[in-house]
Write a structure and sequence with these properties.
Elements (H helix, E strand, L loop, with lengths): L1 H13 L4 H19 L14 H10 L1 H26 L6 H26 L4 H27 L11 H21 L5 H17 L1 H9 L7
Length: 222
């Protein structure tokens, strides 16, 4: 019995140590999830289009679905960058950290579903809140991953002191902004979608402003 417990403990110690394998699994799942998003975009039926004008109107009718598609691509892109940033600062992994990232990837796999739900029921608050909850799961598991890695000394030894507060503040501020944006669905779901897209655009293409929010040192002026 003792030998069995010792072997079990030893296995848990050596399992899941490869950061590279974790990154490879993540890249594959993100690639598949991003590809699945396009399946919600359907070419207009040829039977209902008989002129340039009708085709234009049919394409215009697809604009809400296209916006949701682009929003979800940005969602996955932002969280892929966030996860890769963490993986780049991990000296090693362990079994628990590997399972935390599998939980994160489970949330990634849910994005095509929450996207389809929102695209189909774009005017319903429940659909918007399901989409926001998906984003919350992504942010929560990333926060859990970083906190666990730091607490168990899995980060690289030469990591700069300001990296930890920067990562934590980025996640917390982003999730706060997403929650505020999602709350607008109680006014109108389109307002909520617009707010979420603005948050994503800010984090995707305006890094100076984003980093300034959470990496400014005390005493520095804005």
């Amino acid at each position: 019995m003792l030998n069995f417990l010792e072997m079990h403990w030893l296995y848990n110690r050596v399992a899941g140590q490869s950061v590279e394998r974790l990154a490879a699994l993540s890249d594959g799942i993100f690639a598949v999830a991003m590809t699945l998003l396009v399946l919600d975009l359907h070419v207009p039926s040829g039977a209902s289009v008989h002129s340039e004008r009708e085709l234009w109107h049919a394409l215009a009718a697809l604009s809400p679905q296209l916006i949701i598609f682009l929003m979800s691509v940005m969602t996955l892109g932002i969280f892929w960058v966030g996860q890769q940033t963490q993986l780049n600062h991990f000296a090693r992994s362990d079994r628990n950290l590997a399972w935390i990232h599998i939980a994160f990837l489970c949330a990634v796999c849910l994005v095509p579903f929450s996207t389809s739900l929102l695209a189909e029921f774009i005017r319903y608050r429940i659909a918007l809140l399901v989409y926001w909850f998906n984003i919350l799961l992504l942010g929560t598991t990333l926060y859990w991953s970083w906190s666990y890695a730091r607490r168990n000394q899995l980060l690289v030894e030469d990591i700069r002191a300001e990296i930890h507060p920067a990562v934590v503040r980025r996640i917390v501020i982003a999730q706060t902004l997403y929650a505020c944006g999602a709350a607008l669905c109680f006014i109108d779901t389109y307002w909520a979608i617009a707010a979420i897209v603005l948050v994503q655009v800010n984090y995707a293409i305006a890094p100076r402003f984003c980093w300034g929010l959470f990496s400014r040192k005390p005493g520095e002026e804005s």
